[in-house]
Amino acid sequence: MSAPLIVLVGPMGVGKSTVGQLLAERLGTGYRDTDEDIVTAQGRAIAEIFVDEGEAAFRTLEKEAVRTALAEHEGVLALGGGAILDADTRALLAGQRVVYLSMDVEEAVKRTGLNAARPLLAVNPRKQWRELMEARRHLYEDVATAVVATDGRTPEEVTQAALEAVELKEA
Ligand code: S3P
């Protein structure tokens, strides 16, 4: 079975798609994003899926999208911020090269702000961030083979740090 070169995990707004695309360029490979796969397959925005069907239904779609992408994609794969909530997904990530892009809460609130496209942060983003990260930090750490802090770094610097952390040769 093929496997992605790198899987990126971490909270929303941490820069998974920006860094993922830069990593893919540097490694001469393709970029894929499970949020985008879901939007394409469903023909709706993620916020709409949350509103229409609720978070549980979204998580079911997400779990399937991650399983498929892990089996199909050989390049850089970014997972939605909550994908690691699922125990089966975490089990699938064991043995993969997983980079956790981290950031502190203040940075997170600054970067994501009141973003309607991010339904989990619609009300009181700072408090919601704290709760989200308290619930998830250890899950990100559990699945990660490398942790790369993004605070105060440009996407290019984060990309460089991620390449060094996983010791992959560039194309
Ligand atoms: C979510 C993160 C989002 C998206 C959905 C839920 C989360 O993805 O999957 O809004 O639970 O953290 P990004 O991390 O790509 O923004």
UniProtKB/TrEMBL annotation:
Enzyme superclass (EC): transferase
Catalytic reactions on record: shikimate + ATP = 3-phosphoshikimate + ADP + H(+)
InterPro entries: P-loop_NTPase, Shikimate/glucono_kinase, Shikimate_kinase/TSH1, Shikimate_kinase_CS
SUPFAM superfamilies to which the protein is assigned, alphabetical: P-loop containing nucleoside triphosphate hydrolases
Positions of Mg(2+) binding: 17
CC cofactor: Mg(2+)
Binding positions for substrate per the UniProt entry: 35, 59, 81, 136
Pathways involved: Metabolic intermediate biosynthesis; chorismate biosynthesis; chorismate from D-erythrose 4-phosphate and phosphoenolpyruvate: step 5/7
Cited Pfam families: SKI
Enzyme Commission no: 2.7.1.71
Record keywords, A-Z: Amino-acid biosynthesis, Aromatic amino acid biosynthesis, ATP-binding, Cytoplasm, Kinase, Magnesium, Metal-binding, Nucleotide-binding, Transferase
GO biological process: amino acid biosynthetic process; aromatic amino acid family biosynthetic process; chorismate biosynthetic process
Gene Ontology MF annotations: ATP binding; magnesium ion binding; shikimate kinase activity
Entry's localization field: Cytoplasm
Positions of ATP binding: 13-18, 118, 153
Subunit structure, as described in the record: Monomer.
Protein family membership: Belongs to the shikimate kinase family.
Function: Catalyzes the specific phosphorylation of the 3-hydroxyl group of shikimic acid using ATP as a cosubstrate.
Protein name, UniProt field: Shikimate kinase
Organism whose genome encodes this protein: Streptomyces lividans 1326
